[in-house]
Specification:
This protein has about 190 residues and is of the alpha/beta class. Helices cover about 20% and strands about 20% of the residues. The protein has helices spanning about 35-45, 55-60, 70-75, 100-105, 120-125, and strands at about 1-5, 50, 80, 95, 115, 135-140, 160-165, 170-180. A hairpin with a 5-residue loop joins strand 7 (about 160-165) and strand 8 (about 170-180). It is globular and about 60 Å long.
């Protein structure tokens, strides 16, 4: 979930992530509609998840008690990149310590991994060319400050648009698949 100016911090609620004085938590709430709900429902089908520690800590305090809304998150395996947290009472939580363990996990025969939130983790994955698919939900709002999705350390990479949808409230949902290297040329030539 991304604002027009690239902010991904605290989309779900006012208390979700107030770090660095972020005061716009819950900024996606005004854009819910049935079309967005159906798209989100599809994305929330059973999967396994790769999460950063901060997102995991927010989620492990929320999702086990809200099983009616997203049961798959509780049933799915949660792989968590963390150097400080090593265990959790939340079922199916496995902790990873470094990029090498993520690379090894990526090359297993298990289900695809979804990454939700986890801004630092996403930037790390982009830096190491470990993202095959990006589903970006762009909301028609500018927040001015907050954690950004993209940083200057991502490797140059080309993507192809595979699916897109615009909701009645103006949210653009676009799914991109990795498509080789960046191609350059002269515009208009």
């Amino acid at each position: 979930m991304l604002s027009l100016d690239g902010v991904m911090q605290g989309p779900g609620g006012p208390e979700e992530d107030t770090s660095n004085g972020f005061e716009y938590g819950g900024w996606t709430a005004a854009f819910g509609d049935p079309v967005f709900g159906e798209a989100l429902k599809k994305e929330m089908e059973p999967s396994d998840y790769l999460l950063g520690r901060k997102t995991f800590e927010i989620w492990e305090n929320y999702w086990p008690n809200h099983n009616h809304f997203w049961p798959a998150i509780n049933a799915g395996t949660k792989y968590v990149l963390s150097k400080t947290v090593k265990d959790s009472d939340w079922n199916n939580s496995i902790f990873l310590e470094n990029v090498a363990e993520i690379k090894a996990l990526k090359h297993t025969d298990g289900p695809d991994l979804q990454v939700w939130g986890s801004s630092e983790l996403v930037q790390l994955l982009l830096q190491h060319d470990l993202s095959d698919v990006l589903t970006i939900k762009t909301f028609p709002v500018i927040l001015g400050k907050g954690k950004k999705l993209f940083a200057d350390n991502a490797i140059p990479a080309a993507f192809t648009l595979k699916e897109n949808l615009v909701t009645p409230k103006g949210v653009i949902i676009a799914t991109y698949e990795r498509d080789g290297d960046v191609k350059t040329g002269t515009a208009g030539g």
